[in-house]
Amino acid sequence: MITGACLCGGVRVEVRSPLGPIIYCHCSMCRRTTGTAFATNATVMADAFHIVAGRELVREYESSPGRFRAFCSRCGSPVYGRGDRIPLVRVRLGGLDGDPGARAAAHIQVGSKAPWFDITDARERFEESAPLHYFAPG
Predict the structure, then answer these.
(1) In the chain, how many domains are there?
(2) What is the residue range of 109's domain?
(3) In this predicted model, what pLDDT tens digit does every residue of 18-70 receive, in sequence order?
(4) N or C: which end of the chain has fewer CB within 10 A?
């Protein structure tokens, strides 16, 4: 099990299965959500992701039709993302406690990455999204 929290500690989560591949997303929405060059996410099946404290603090924003980004309404920390059509949750790794036991597999949406950020590692890169197997939970 992996635990995590938002910045203020009001929202606490548990992930009760292994994470899918860790992905660095460089799309403009992820950059704006995090205030950084990219978001670091991994997927899990929705039934393996649990908010164990602070559910009343979680707010969801529909960033595009059927796709939601959740954050703590007190401190603004991103917590997860989800879609209406598939039973997966995109866990925001910055809020996890300890080592998630996996490492980043790829950069996606590099066609829209911030011009001031240079990718210098050898991880696989995708101009847009990666093939679906990159998002399959562990």
Answers:
(1) 1
(2) 2-135
(3) 999 999 999 999 999 999 999 999 999 999 999 999 999 999 999 999 999 99
(4) N
Token representation of residue 57: 């603090």
What percentage of the chain reaches a pLDDT higher than 90? 86
Task: Return d(Cα 138, Cα 38) in angstroms, integer.
Answer: 22
Amino acid at 121: D
Q: Residue 124 has which token pair?
A: 């696989």
Question: Which position has the token pair 């299965």?
Answer: 17
**Tokens describing residue 60:** 């969801």
Which letter, b or e, does each residue of 68-97 get, where b requires 16 or more Cβ atoms within 10 Å of its Cβ?
bbbbbeeeebbbbbbeeeeebbbbbbbbbe
* CATH label of the domain that carries residue 81: 2.170.150.70
Q: Which two tokens stand for residue 15?
A: 């992930």
Structural element, H or E, at residue 32:
helix 28-34
Q: What is the pTM of this model?
A: 0.90
Contacts of 49 (CB under 8 A, 6+ apart): 13, 14, 15, 16, 80, 89, 91
Phi, psi dihedrals of residue 59, rounded to the nearest 5°:
-120, 145
